[in-house]
Amino acid sequence: MSNPQIHRLLEMVKESGGSDLHISSGMTPKIRVHGRLRPVRQEPLSAEQCENLLLEILDERRIEALRERNDLDWAYSMPGIGRFRANYFRQQHGMTGVFRLIPEEIKPVEELGVPQHVERFCEMRCGLVLCTGPTGSGKSTTLAALIDYINRKHSRHIVTIEEPIEFVHVNKKSTITQREVGIDSESFAQALRSVSRQDPDVVLVGELRDLETIGLAITAAEMGYLVFATLHTNSAAKTIDRIIDVFPEDQQAQVRTMLSASLKGVIAQLLIPRSDGKGRAVVNELLFPTVSLPNIIREGAIHKIVSLIEGGRGSGMQLMDDSILQRLKEGAISAENAYRWAADKKRFQPMLDRAKAK
Predict the structure, then answer these.
(1) Each residue of 179-211: pLDDT tens digit?
(2) Which residues are CB-contacts of 53 (< 8 A; sequence separation ≥ 6)?
(3) Which of 198, 234, 317, 323 sees the fewest Cβ atoms within 10 Å?
(4) How far apart are the C-alpha atoms of 292 and 94, rounded to whole Å?
């Protein structure tokens, strides 16, 4: 059987050092390299060409799922190239497919540029640890590094619940069970409801996307499991607010109490284009457990989180803006990008003005 046509485009993602491939009806295929989309050919694809390219690599079951929902999350393996996380969906002009290259090698946190302090979360026996940030900020990569750390150092049963499975882990000291939503379980919530019967020590939840999943993740942490999960928020304070705000008002006091007992930390993450044009620099906000954190969550005094992190710098905590400033001082990122990504714009305005005056 001849190679599917799409293979050449997927090979080009790896060859160009790119992260994503976009294929859409009426457009030329584009590859995202260091955060920017670049066309890979001149002519746009017709709706028919696009559909043929995308459907050629789907099996019957997935074609049926796409037909039913007009939306499909899945993973595709290309021997010698790597795995891709794919999302297919229908839009105004026809079909679209977006492929994200998943690195074959799981790198340790120090190679990712993430502070090594985060490995402390792996030594905890129970609780909820949230890795947060926008889409494409490397959350899955950071969590894969933490799961791999546990796998190398400890003898535990790790259950991952993902849509789709991204990094494929090989058993080392630990035993790893990877479950894919849509194939091995109907939903994140259903997989979480049955996880206690699987005797886990560590549970990874790919995404906390609704009230039920969030509630079950908090409950699993309360039951004595170490739970890692992701959310689309940019700071520790916003993460805590987001979780509580998902619940109806009459349940929020109870959720605050549960979260105050179970939340063990937040790793917020952003990727900022490097000033030398070679990739992106990782910046992190880190919140670790302290004696006063449960009270702050219970009382709803989330504004105190910033000063809590500032006071915990000696123990490895850091604010996102401090991490951005550090990268700017190192020369890794430009003043323009530091200003653009910072929360406190006033703090970075003088540096931006100096850069513009040069």
Answers:
(1) 999 889 999 999 999 999 999 999 999 999 899
(2) 4, 5, 6, 9, 23, 45, 97
(3) 198
(4) 53
**Structural domain span for residue 38:** 6-102
CA distance 42 to 326: 41
**Which token pair is 296?**
């702050």
Is residue 182 within 8 A of residue 207, CB to CB? The reply is no
Residue pair 149/116 in contact by the 8 Å Cβ criterion? no
| 3-state secondary structure (DSSP) of residue 159 | strand
Beta strand spans in 111-164 (E): 127-132, 157-162
The CA-CA-CA angle for residues 34, 110, 171, to 5°, reads 100
Structurally, the chain folds into a number of domains equal to 2
**pLDDT tens, 258-317?**
999 999 999 999 999 999 988 899 999 999 999 999 999 999 999 999 999 999 999 999
Separation in Å, CA 302 to CA 16, 134, 261, 272? 43, 21, 15, 26
Token pair, residue 93, equals 């002009």
How far apart CA 137 and CA 232 sit, in angstroms, is 10
**What token pair was written down for 193?**
């409801």
Strands 20-24 and 94-102: antiparallel
| Integer angstrom CA distances of residue 167 from 101, 104, 243, 333, 334 | 10, 7, 26, 28, 32
Is 193 in the same domain as 293?
Answer: yes
Q: Which amino acid is at 33?
A: V
Place of tokens 């919530």: 189
Select from 47, 74, 102 the last residue of a domain.
102
Q: Cβ–Cβ contacts within 10 Å for residue 298, how many?
A: 15
For the domain that residue 12 is a member of, what is the CATH number? Answer: 3.30.450.90
